[in-house]
Amino acid sequence: MGCLLAFFVFQSNSINAQGDLKKFLEIAEEKKQKGDFIHALNYYDKAMQIDSNAIHVLWNYAEVLRAYKDYRKAEYYYKKVFEREGAELFPASLLYLGLMQKHNSKYDDAIATFKKAKKVYRKDPRGYLAEKSRQELQACLWAKSQLIDTANMVMHNLPESINSKDAEFPHALTRERLYFSSMRGDSIGGSEEVYAEDYQTNIFHAYFDDGAWGEVDRVASLNFKSFSTGNGTFSLDNKRFYFSRCINQNNQTTCKIMVAKHDNGTFSKVDELGEIINEPGANTTMPFIGEWEGQEVLFFASDRAGGKGGLDIWYSFISNGNQFKKPQNLKRINTIENDVTPFWDSENQTVYFSSTWHYGFGGYDIFKSQFANNQFEPPENLGIPFNSPANDTYYFHTLSQDTSVWSSNRLGVNYSKNPTCCNDIFMASPPLPPPPPTIAESLEELNKRLPVTLYFHNDIPNPRSRDTTTKVNYLNSYKEYIAMLDKYQKEYAKGLRGSKAEDAKDDIEDFFIEYVQQGVENLFLFRDLLLDELQRGRQIELTVKGFASPLAQSDYNVNLTKRRIASLRNYLMEYNNGVFLPYFKGTAQSGGKLWIQAVPFGEYTADAFVSDNPNDVQNSIYSRAAAMERKIEIQSVTIHKQEDAQKIALMATPPIINIGTVKRGEVITGKFVVRNTGDTALDLRTEIPCDCNTVKLYKSKLAPDESTAVEVTFDTAQYEGKEVKSVYIHFHENQAPLRLVITTEILSGE
């Protein structure tokens, strides 16, 4: 009888628990739909206490954590979901895992996740999940190369009288007031991340006087019961104030742009803009007024028909203060995701906006695009400190451009429960002009960007040639190489079937994204830093090493790598109408000079497992392993002191000697001639990294224009295969040592 009673008690408790679970999930979903993420999480917590293994509970819990911007917890639960269901029940679980890793600055983890996602979603290669995964893979690679604050701005958070533990968003800054919207709750929601039924935003202004923030007031005439308001902007004559008003009804948010009369800080006669702007059935929000081509113009965000997807940025010219022309879509900058919070810099003809699609550090990043030559330029990320792994939106700057203002939910904001839940307002201004960087500081900045690795198609440039130079510009070679992706995928997957063929194609695509494309992005960043230093009068030597796959003979490959290094030199000499030319020629007014020290290794450092069979093109040309070997690398930077660079120099003829093929156990010798090409005497000292080498220096002191022989021997007894051996000649404490190289291929002799 006791066992029977216990069974009924257990069954009754189980039924009650299941009833509670269903009730908690229904309430949680209702709160989630309204944007009330705090209460939704409370009910999901209750549901998790009853059943923490149910996959649909875990998924919805992760979804609300993501909406609430609790990136760390969301990452944990998306990972649990994906490990349980492999993106079968919830296909977006893997994509969102990668996005949360990106939000948490785990770029390497995110890269691995997005590479996996590309494979999981390849059944629908043109679908959103696949496209987003490819885009985010490239964005994370870009972000890793950009983790340097180059803006030289001093950033600060506003006082707690403005930045509460809730969400704040800046809109306009006058001489005496900051207009912003603030939320009275712990959660944010809606399509703009600011609007929700239970946690609505209202417009406030904060007084600013003599460098200090004063009283904060709610602008009563611009706020309405049950509506969220925000996004304020003044007309050019300061007589009108445009703003957004949104309402959440039946779990749907609807936004419209309003206009109010403005007179010395007082607002009245609020009215909706007409249907030309507030198109029926669409969300229209985030207005900004500027001047363009002598006319007043309204920029705004809308999901109206005719856009690319989500919220797009549109503009409409205004006449007589209330006549709006047909809105036009900014097609050059809009994407398939949300593009929002436009700000127009009239003086520089530049639009600033936030987007989740273009390459960024986190979710929404701030971008700019200048209108030039009758079109908008490709968007440019504003970089650090304006952007972060979180969301950065609502950017604008003052007319003098000495103060930038924006909103972010990055780590460091005020909060009560979740450290990235809610936005604060940030400002940044330029510091006092810094002193010119020292040589050590300049060298450190340049070395942060190294190595820069650039890749080539087989036997490019100048195929079937033994020339040591070329007229090819590397960037042109790169464009032709990138265009060959489909051919590489087809050739490398030849003979494979099913998932193996698809894996091979993915492997090649990942190589082109991670290495070939990223190499050029790194080159552009290094190029700009290099030019800055040359303009400061620096005298810079770049050491560039060249490599090849082992398909051709050794002496041919050495010449090929010389041509590849020459193509980089050509790119720099032709860039921006020859801006580097005076530095190569030594005629720049700044006194800056640029040298390239070429070190052509041929295939002597190539992976021993790379095919050298010319009949096996699948592996000797189109494989990832072979493609990885066809490259040049900017590996080191030497900055010479001006007084030393003009007087001190040591050159070798030749710098590299290829011995060819030898049998193991032979002792081989290379003879070099080194010459003092400066105008001061040099004391020479040798450095031998390997016990297998010896070096004979015929003279240890060289007068100007004097030469001496250097004899380097290499004992091959313990080696087999292709080898590169070096010795170094030190000649001045402020100069990089001269490197002498012997290359050879050692046969076993069996």
Summarize the structure.
The protein has 4 domains: 21-145, Alpha Horseshoe (Serine Threonine Protein Phosphatase 5, Tetratricopeptide repeat); 154-429, 5 Propeller (Tachylectin-2, Chain A); 435-640, OmpA-like domain (60s Ribosomal Protein L30, Chain: A); 647-750, Immunoglobulins (Immunoglobulin-like), CATH 2.60.40.10.
Your description of this structure?
- The structure is a single chain.
- By secondary structure, this protein is α+β, with helices and mostly antiparallel strands.
- The protein has four domains: 21-145, Tetratricopeptide repeat domain (Serine Threonine Protein Phosphatase 5, Tetratricopeptide repeat); 154-429, Glycosyl hydrolase domain, family 43 (Tachylectin-2, Chain A, 5 Propeller); 435-640, 60s Ribosomal Protein L30, Chain: A (2-Layer Sandwich); 647-750, Sandwich (Immunoglobulin-like), CATH 2.60.40.
- The protein is built from 16 helices and 36 strands.
- The strands form nine sheets. Strands 10, 11, 12, 13 and 14 form a five-stranded antiparallel beta sheet that branches. Strands 15, 16, 17, 18 and 19 form a five-stranded antiparallel beta sheet that branches.
- Helix 4 runs antiparallel to helix 5 (93-103).
- It starts with a helix and ends with a strand.
